[in-house]
Amino acid sequence: MSYSLAVDIGGTFTDIVLRDSKGGLSVDKTLTTHHDLLEGFFRGVDSVLGKAGVAAGAVDGLVVHATTVVTNALIERKGLPTALVVTEGFRDVLAIRNEHRYDMYDPQIEFPEPLVTRELTFGLKERVLADGTIAIAPNPQDIAQLVRDIRASGARALAICFLNSFANPANEALVAAALARELNDVFICTSSEVAPQIREYQRASTATVNAYAMPISQPYLKRLSDRLRVEGFANTPLIMLSSGGVVGAETAGKNPVRMIESGPAAGALAACHYAELLGIDRLMSFDMGGTTAKACLIENRTPLVTGLFEVDRRYRFKEGSGLPVTVPSIDLIEIGAGGGSIAHVDDLGLLKVGPESAGSNPGPACYGRGGQSATVTDADLVLGLIDAENFLGGDMSLDKPACEAAMARLGQALNVSPVQAARGIYRIVTEAMASAARTHATDRGVDYRGLPLFAFGGAGPLHACGVADLLQSTCVIVPPQSSVLSAFGTLVTPVRLDLVRSDLTLVAHLDWSRVDRVLGDLESEGMAALGQSGCAPKDVTILVGADMRYVGQQHEVTVIFETDPRQGRDAGALAQQFEAAYRTLYGVNPSHVPIEIVTWRVVARGPSPRFDGQTRPQIAQGQAKRHRPVHAWQDDQSVPVYERAALAVGQTVAGPAIIEERETTTALPPGWNATIDSLGCIIARKG
């Protein structure tokens, strides 16, 4: 028997999945240990290995990891001093940003503080022109002075971002090599390696985020690899990336900026996997964990991918209020609406939920770890949706008196009963998640009405039917092991690396020899990275796309081409595919305007791991194991409680009902009916 292991570290829980070669799964959840993430990692791994009755040496397949280590470093600002080297005269690039205001009428508009202060930003005399011509090469004497300045500053990480380095990285590479020889204890990266794209501010921001995270990510991944080897695991770990692929730990350590959304990306990939199994082309994935909720559109059984996202936003729904990162990432929306989201009363006396989270320490009041604020999980407990004695199968008992006290304090501040306060939390967080999903779909030109809602995460199945009702979804799908599905997603995604490079050119005047050179370089880089992850060249598939726009526009539309454009060399076909994508988004095409390619994209992808899952065995239809009072829909409603494992294929459960399993609970409101399919999925429909 062969085994593969996946671990997803979230803001509240760390999820572990052990998969055997026959498709069987052993899973566990444990609280995330933020003081040392590997403590919770190996605590969970030891637990799941014990459940399966196997030793670490039996895990001879994949070991895949998704982690919040980079996200935590950026939000908490606990990184080491980081410096930035720019072209002389451009030291204020991070402070000036791009001069866009995400809210034109807010006189107190806020932006996150730059990761690098002006005092740690150094200018160097050099210049590359927009066409790649080197007008001024760096002077050795200036570089020597730069070495002295950086050494005196105490910086432990360094990003280099010169003007137009995407067109010619020679100056950046020269300076990086010279600094590396003299500053061998400093982590160094260049913008031309991390994000070789136009737009100076976004490129500088991406490079500084990467440099800031390197002193944290590289030692962390090295400790992880060493510990796995000492424990007896056969293979080095693969790391989940924001783009939905996995690469080796060494490649990921050099590019931590690509790991920021690794956990949410894994969840989206798991949704795609089930879309294939269930034969559904379009759905909305809905992942609600302990800290955040995420929504992602799945089109043609594939998630949308974006080339720009933001971290550390001041306002979650306001684009432009965070630090831009120009690396490929699965396109999803994330809001502070998880089980640990804290409820509070604002200055107007209104009930608000999130975005602040109680996390795993102290956690919600019901965790009994010192938390005093009422959270979404506390509301679910007060409403009777979850069982204090059956949380994590009884391994983690909840403190109901502490929960009721926290809800009573909130109710007193609102002048309502504790149950009314809990209902308010439940409804507000449900509406917030539905609103986020609407925004995500509408901004991408997609009609969300009627899309099935694929619900997972520790709290997702509890709230999914309410969210689906607001989105007019046709049904809710809750897969098996839904609470740890993001960890499972890392086991069904291929080794993959997304690469980009800007090369502004008119489609009508494409220089195919130049196209061959740019795409050839990206393809070679991708093949090398996948080779380090153990992928044979014959198994690598190359996909080609581009960011395109009409001349004069500021923003581009990303198009993944149906075939490699180097084969047909048909510029007209590229234009037609762009026009089709543009019309989908905007409903019109200014056909008289020329089209230009801004950035080329190459995806190097290995084979997808085969995993068909286990069909559910035929058993007798299970009966409700008990009834308990639930207050979510009306006062003291006696609701049947079912054990999910006891439900038979084809069995229908009528709402209101509660379906429990060890790691999560599915809430079925009045008027909803749920059926168990052959894969063990709960398929819930209204009416």
UniProtKB/TrEMBL annotation:
One of its GO terms (biological process) is glutathione metabolic process. GO terms for cellular component: cytosol. Residues 5-182 form the Hydantoinase/oxoprolinase N-terminal domain. Residues 203-496 form the Hydantoinase A/oxoprolinase domain. InterPro entries: ACX-like_C (IPR049517), ATPase_NBD (IPR043129), Hydant_A_N (IPR008040), Hydantoinase_A (IPR002821), Oxoprolinase-like (IPR045079). Residues 515-678 form the Acetophenone carboxylase-like C-terminal domain. GO terms for molecular function: 5-oxoprolinase (ATP-hydrolyzing) activity. This is N-methylhydantoinase A. It comes from Bosea psychrotolerans.
